[in-house]
Amino acid sequence: ISPFRTPQLTAAARTSLIHRGDPSTGWSMGWKVCLWSRLLDGNHALKLISDQLTLVRNEKKKGGTYPNLFDAHPPFQIDGNFGCTAGIGEMLLQSHDGFVYLLPALPDAWTEGSVSGLKARGGFEVSMEWKNNNIVKATVKSENGGNLRIRSSVPLAGKGLKEAKGENKNPLFKTPRDVRQKINFPEKIEQMPALKKTYLYDIATKKGQTVELRMEK
């Protein structure tokens, strides 16, 4: 399911999440952070992180976090801690859809920051800095070599960077094609917000190479 390749399926999945609601036990909140990140809705993901960090002491059937920072189910379940952490990673970097997407679900509240050592498919390690909710600089280390396809919400500049065309030739980024879609009650699907404009680039990398990217001025 992809907002870019299967928008109707994405809208159906989003509608299901809306009807399930946000309140849940802790492990389910962790999952929902991941799912809303995949839907590219960083603000909703951040709202769920806040819910996840709500203090829980002895309440029953309530999601949140115990004073020792364990996930509240009850009882403790590590799924919530790991799931929420994975969701934060997905807010900052995704690579499951045929490209490495920089800051795909960055919430408005995270106006500036940095992250290092995030691993992407294809054997790429990514570090980034952002200000005013936009990428300022990104460094990508290629462990395996091969084509690196980058998606960004701002135009980028860097040595060897060119506009992406056609299929990604890197086999480690292969995505499903001709997905069979069957959606019950399509008239009840809530419309997806419009996808923001993005830029797609390719850069041929060699094993061990480090690529430096920056926001184009």
Helix content: 10-25%
Main beta sheet, described? 5 strands, mixed
- CATH-defined superfamily of the largest domain: Golgi alpha-mannosidase II
CATH class of the largest domain: Mainly Beta
CATH overall fold name of the largest domain: Immunoglobulin-like
CATH-derived architecture of the largest domain: Sandwich
Order of SSEs: HHHEEHEEEEEEEEEE
Kindly state the number of beta strands.
Answer: 12
- Count of helices? 4
- Uncertain runs are none
The structural class is alpha+beta
Overall geometric form: globular
Strand order of the largest sheet: 3-4-8-11-10
- Separation of the first and last Cα atoms: 34 Å
- Number of spatially distinct domains: 2
Mean pLDDT score: 93
